[in-house]
UniProtKB/TrEMBL annotation:
Gene3D superfamilies: P-loop containing nucleotide triphosphate hydrolases. Keywords: ATP-binding, Helicase, Hydrolase, Nucleotide-binding. It catalyses: ATP + H2O = ADP + phosphate + H(+). It is an enzyme of class 5 (isomerase). This is DNA 5'-3' helicase. InterPro entries: ATP-dep_Helicase_C (IPR006555), DEAD/DEAH_box_helicase_dom (IPR011545), DinG/Rad3-like (IPR045028), Helic_SF1/SF2_ATP-bd_DinG/Rad3 (IPR014013), Helicase_ATP-bd (IPR014001), P-loop_NTPase (IPR027417). It comes from Kribbella alba. Pfam families: DEAD, Helicase_C_2.
C-alpha cells in the first residue's frame, strides 16, 4: 500500500501536535494486525495513551482498501468528538501520505434527528390526531423554536441533529422527532427527499468510516444489519459499556398508560370493539400491577402474566384491523401508519412478557408520578453479541478499563468471546446458547498500559480502621473521615457515592462542619456543576453514578477522590439478581461473576477520575475496609490503577496538606 501504520501514526501525532507513545504504537499495530487477519482484539489503553488515534489510524489504512469500518462509542459526546475534532485533524495531518482522502460520516438513531413530518404536520395527540398547535407554556415555546431551527437547518444544508438544537426539554424534542417504528419511511413520507435521518444514512453509505453509538450498533444487529451500511470491521470504543448498552437496546417497557395511549390513537382506524378491548386490557394490566409487589416477575405472578396475555391478544386484533386497509390514500397524513407502529410495539412487548422465557428477566417498578410499569431485558447478551455482531465481522474492543481482576476474562465472557471452559454468566450457560451454531471465536487481549506513573502520582488509601458500611447509609465515623480528608485537601475533592442519599448526607455534613464549598449532584444541571467544579479549584463536587464515569477534571481541581463504599449492585436490583442466580444455578460463583465484576468495573472507572495527565497528583480514598479485608478484595484491587497503597491515615492527611500548599 505504500504507507505503514507506524509511519501514518507518527505523521498524525506530529501534525496534531505531540509525540507518539509506545502504548499507542503497540495498539495501532495490533489493531492493524487484527483487521488483516480477521481475529477479534480486546485492547486496554489507559488514560493518556492516545487511544482514539490508536484505532483511527489503522482504520484509515483499512478504509483505503475499500473495506468500510464502523466505530461505535457508548456516548453521543464521544461520537461527536470523533467527528468534530479527531477525524478532521487526523485527515489533515495525514493527507500527504494517503492516495485519497477517506470519507467519514456520523450516524445516530432516527430520534436524534428532527422529523419534518412532525414539524410540518404536527405530533399525534392521545386520539391519534396530528395536532399542529404546540402545548402551552415553556415546552410549547421550545417546540416553536425547534421548528424554526429545523427549517433553518434544512436551508443551510445542516444535519438537523439534536446535539446542535437550541436548549430544550425532552418533552419538546418529542414533538419534533419520531421513533423509527412510527416513521412513514422515505418512500411514503411527503418529506422523504428532505429527511434529515435519511440524508445521514445516505452519507454513511458513501463513507469509508462510519461513527455511531452502541445503541444503534445493537439495533443494526437486531434488524438484520439493515440500519448501518455494510461493513466488515467494528471498532468498539468505551467497550466496557457495550454489554449494558446492548441490554438496554434489547430491553423494553410495558405500562397501562402506553397500552391505553396506543388504543386511543388506533380508535379512529379500527372497530370500536377492538379498541375497547385494548383499553380494557390496559385496565386489567393496571389492576394486576397495583396488586403486585415491586421486583422480579416469575411464574407465580399469574395475574400479571394473564394481564400481559390479554394485552397481547387485544393488540393483535387491533393490529390486524389496522392492516385490513393499507392503501396509502386512506392515510394521507401518516397517522394510521404511526398508530400501527405503536400498536405493533405493544404487541411485541406484551407477547414477550407473557411468554416469560428463561432467557428474559421481567420486573415491576413504580415510577411514582408516572405509575407502575413492567420492564423486560435479556438475562445475558453474550449470545446475541456473538451471533449478531462477532460471528461475521472483525471486532476490536477498547477501553481504559477492560481488565478486571487482572485479566480480560470477565469482559470476554460478557461480550460472547470467552470459550466455554468455565461455568459463568455468558456463553457458559447452556440454556442461553442451546441454539448457537457458533463455536469459540479467536481473540486476544492486549494491555498497552498507560503513560502515567501511577505509583508516583497517586496514593490508594483504604480507611481500614472504619467499620464496614451498612444499609442505613454513612455513619458518624465515615462523616468524620470525609471532613478530615476534604479539609486536608482544602476542597479539591470529587466525592463518588453509592446513592443519592449518601451524597446528600455527606454534603450536609461537610457544609455544617467547614467553610468549604461543596456542590452536590441535583443542586443544578450536572454540566453546570462540573463547570463550576473545574473553574474553582477549592470547590468540591459530590454525586453518584454519572460522576463515576462521566467527568474529566485534570489538574489541581481534583486532588482527592473519595469513594464511600464498594459499589456492588443492590441486592433487590432484579436484573443483576437474576443473572447472579443463573450463574449459581449453573454451578458457578454468581457473586464473583456478576456482583464483584460490576463493582470492579465501577471502582476502576471511579479511581480513574484522579490521574488524567502526567502532572496530576493526589489520593483516592476508599472508606470501605472490605477492599482489603474481604476474600474478594484482591480481585477488586487487581482491577484498579497501580497506585501506591496505604492504610496510614496520617500519611495521607499529610500528603493532601502538602499538595494543597504546593
Amino acid at each position: 500500500m505504500g504507507v505503514e501504520v507506524r509511519e501514518l501514526l507518527e505523521a498524525a501525532v506530529s501534525g496534531i501536535g505531540g509525540q507518539t507513545r509506545p502504548g499507542q504504537v503497540e495498539m495501532a499495530e495490533a489493531v492493524n494486525g487484527s483487521m488483516e487477519d480477521g481475529s477479534h482484539l480486546l485492547v486496554q489503553a489507559g488514560t493518556g495513551t492516545g487511544k482514539s488515534l490508536g484505532y483511527l489510524v489503522p482504520a484509515l489504512l483499512h478504509a483505503l482498501e475499500d473495506r468500510r469500518v464502523v466505530v461505535s462509542t457508548a456516548t453521543l459526546a464521544l461520537q461527536s468528538q470523533l467527528v468534530d475534532r479527531d477525524m478532521p485533524a487526523l485527515l489533515e495531518a495525514t493527507e500527504k501520505l494517503l492516495p485519497r482522502r477517506p470519507a467519514y460520516a456520523i450516524q445516530k438513531g432516527r430520534n436524534n434527528y428532527a422529523c419534518l413530518h412532525r414539524i410540518r404536520e404536527g405530533a399525534p395527540d392521545e386520539d391519534g390526531m396530528l395536532i399542529d398547535v404546540p402545548p402551552p407554556g415553556a415546552v410549547g415555546q421550545q417546540v416553536l423554536e425547534l421548528r424554526d431551527w429545523a427549517e433553518q437547518q434544512l436551508l443551510d444544508g445542516e444535519a438537523g441533529d439534536r446535539d446542535h438544537a437550541p436548549s430544550h426539554q425532552y418533552q419538546a424534542w418529542q414533538q419534533v422527532a419520531i421513533a423509527a417504528r412510527e416513521c412513514l419511511g422515505a418512500q411514503k413520507c411527503p418529506y422523504g427527499d428532505e429527511c434529515f435521518a435519511e440524508k445521514a444514512k445516505e452519507q454513511a453509505r458513501k463513507a469509508d468510516i462510519v461513527i455511531t453509538n452502541h445503541a444503534l450498533l445493537s439495533i443494526d444487529a437486531f434488524e438484520n444489519h439493515t440500519v448501518l451500511p455494510e461493513h466488515d470491521v467494528v471498532i468498539v470504543d468505551e467497550a466496557h459499556e457495550l454489554p449494558a448498552r446492548v441490554t438496554g437496546a434489547a430491553g423494553a417497557e410495558l405500562s397501562p398508560q402506553l397500552v391505553e395511549r396506543a388504543a386511543k390513537r388506533a380508535r379512529r382506524f379500527v372497530d370500536d370493539d377492538n379498541a375497547d378491548d385494548l383499553i380494557d386490557a390496559s385496565d386489567a394490566l393496571r389492576a394486576a400491577l397495583d396488586e403486585t409487589r415491586e421486583g422480579r416477575i416469575e411464574a407465580a405472578n399469574g395475574a400479571v402474566l394473564e394481564a400481559a396475555a390479554l394485552v397481547r391478544d387485544a393488540a393483535r386484533s387491533v393490529y390486524s384491523d389496522l392492516n385490513k386497509k393499507s392503501d396509502d390514500k386512506d392515510d394521507p397524513d401518516g397517522a394510521k401508519r404511526q398508530s400501527k407502529g405503536a400498536v405493533k410495539e405493544i404487541f411485541d412487548v406484551a407477547e414477550r412478557v407473557a411468554a416469560l422465557s428463561d432467557l428474559d428477566v421481567v420486573w415491576l417498578i413504580d415510577r411514582e408520578r408516572f405509575g407502575r410499569e413492567l420492564r423486560i431485558a435479556p438475562l445475558t447478551v453474550a449470545g446475541l453479541l456473538r451471533e449478531l455482531v462477532l460471528k461475521d465481522r472483525t471486532v476490536v474492543l477498547t477501553s481504559a478499563t477492560l481488565t478486571l481482576g487482572g485479566d480480560f476474562d470477565a469482559i470476554a465472557r460478557q461480550v460472547g468471546l470467552r470459550p466455554a471452559d468455565k461455568l459463568d454468566l455468558g456463553d457458559e450457560l447452556p440454556s442461553i446458547d442451546a441454539d448457537s451454531e457458533t463455536g469459540p471465536l479467536p481473540w486476544r487481549g492486549l494491555d498497552v498500559g498507560s503513560p502515567f506513573e501511577y505509583e508516583k502520582q497517586g496514593i490508594l488509601y483504604v480507611a481500614k480502621h472504619l467499620p464496614p458500611p451498612h444499609r442505613d447509609g454513612l455513619g458518624k465515623k465515615q462523616f468524620e473521615e470525609i471532613i478530615d480528608l476534604i479539609t486536608a485537601a482544602g476542597g479539591r475533592t470529587l466525592g463518588l457515592f453509592s446513592s443519592r442519599r449518601a451524597a446528600e448526607a455527606a454534603t450536609a455534613a461537610v457544609r455544617e462542619a467547614t467553610e468549604l464549598k461543596v456542590l452536590c449532584q441535583g443542586d443544578a444541571q450536572l454540566g453546570e456543576l462540573a463547570r463550576e467544579f473545574v473553574d474553582d479549584p477549592e470547590t468540591s463536587l459530590f454525586g453518584t453514578l454519572s460522576l463515576w464515569q462521566g467527568i474529566d477534571v485534570p489538574g489541581s481541581t481534583c486532588n482527592l477522590v473519595i469513594i464511600d463504599r464498594v459499589p456492588f449492585p443492590r441486592p433487590d436490583e432484579p436484573l443483576m439478581a437474576a443473572r447472579q442466580r443463573a450463574v449459581d444455578e449453573a454451578g458457578g460463583n454468581g457473586f464473583m461473576a456478576v456482583a464483584a465484576t460490576h463493582a470492579a468495573l465501577l471502582l476502576a472507572q471511579g479511581t480513574g477520575r484522579l490521574i488524567r495527565r502526567t502532572t496530576d497528583r493526589g489520593v483516592v480514598a476508599i472508606l470501605d475496609p472490605r477492599i482489603v479485608t474481604a476474600r474478594y478484595g484482591g480481585y477488586l484491587r487487581a482491577s484498579l490503577p497501580p497506585m501506591w497503597p496505604t492504610a496510614d491515615r496520617e500519611k495521607v492527611l499529610g500528603a493532601l496538606k502538602r499538595l494543597q500548599d504546593s
